[in-house]
Amino acid sequence: MHVLETCESILHGLSFLALAALRQVSRYHKLRRRLVQILALIVVLWSTADVILVRRHLNEEQTRLDYKPPERQRIFIASIIRNNERSLPEGWNEAVVGLADVFGSDNIFVSVCETGSSDNTKNSLRELDKALETNRIGRRIISSVTEPQNAASRDHESGHLPYIPQLRNKCLEPLYDLRGAGLFFDRILFLSDIAFTTEDVLSLLGTNYGTYTAACSFNPLNFPAYNDPFALRDADGYEPVMQKWPFFRSSRSRDDMKSMLPVRVKSCWDGMVFMATEAFYSTSPIQFRGVPDGLAEAHLEASECCLIHADNVLSGRRGVYLNPFVRVGYDTATSLATHSDNSWLTTWEIIESIWENRVRRWFTFPNLTRWPLRRKFSGWESQDEHHKERGDFCLINELQPTET
């Protein structure tokens, strides 16, 4: 009898424990469901707040200039052209000549270097030369610039042409020639074969109320690969974490882009770039260059368009900015698409892109990714005390895929 009572007591105890366990499991599942619901609510509220804030900034009127340039503002326009027959007749010549209506024909100078074109680009440039002459605009247009014989000697897997720095410097030669004649310029406009308007140029000129060392336009529909993807570095010196809005890893650059403010970056280059001339006129003038041969031999390369900012001591004082309101493209259709009622960024794209950006930032580690590059760079530095490179943040490892 005592045995039965003991067994019954054990069974009751086990039943109680089983019921208690089931209650705990039920509570756990309820708790888990509650946590999932809370997390889902947080994501929804967070995403809603993101959309509201971004949409508000997108819909706000840009601080418009009256399109009257500062008094006695002189602009030096530099452009490298190659195989651009299709884009040049699409209004590029007319847009360049039209800048004289705003700045005055005496206040602009156009320097164009054409090299290696196999299409009808040279004829288009002859037409530009005639139009500039008719409007009494200073110019130097050089066709068939000879490419260096060793142009391919350092052209590894990046696809970046190593002689381009020489061409850019050649385009700037009249800047110094005219200085000898007593003519100085306030800004240099580096201009690619893009579809642009006078308003685009003046909006870029007025970036950050005119206080900057360099200001770049951008193309949000094909960013940043369509121009020089190796030239863009965010405010912390990192490459873009993704190739669509809001692009950046750095909180400063990312927040500026989401707020549609001039975006603080360490380096940028695009279809239009304004740069102040002080560093070009200094006693030790900056110029476009590539990386030292020792780094190139280790398959470390950098864009001259990034290194020019690294070499410019004024970059850290006045800042380098990407202007999100100056959106340009290589053809009229793309340019119009970026200006039409903010259609380049839909509500769903805002939600998707912001969360993709967060996930990429949370689960990628750029310092770990760049460790092979840093190891090569440190090895090069240790070889000689004179081995220095100010543009270390511009470096890319040609043997390693990029993060984006």
TrEMBL record:
InterPro entries linked to this entry: Mannosyltransferase_CMT1 (IPR021047)
Top-rank taxon, per record: Eukaryota
Regions crossing the membrane: 35-54
Molecular function terms from GO: glycosyltransferase activity
PANTHER family found in the cross-reference section: CHROMOSOME 8, WHOLE GENOME SHOTGUN SEQUENCE, EXPORT PROTEIN (CAP59), PUTATIVE (AFU_ORTHOLOGUE AFUA_7G05020)-RELATED
Alphabetic keyword roster: Glycosyltransferase, Membrane, Transferase, Transmembrane, Transmembrane helix
Designated name of the protein: Cryptococcal mannosyltransferase 1-domain-containing protein
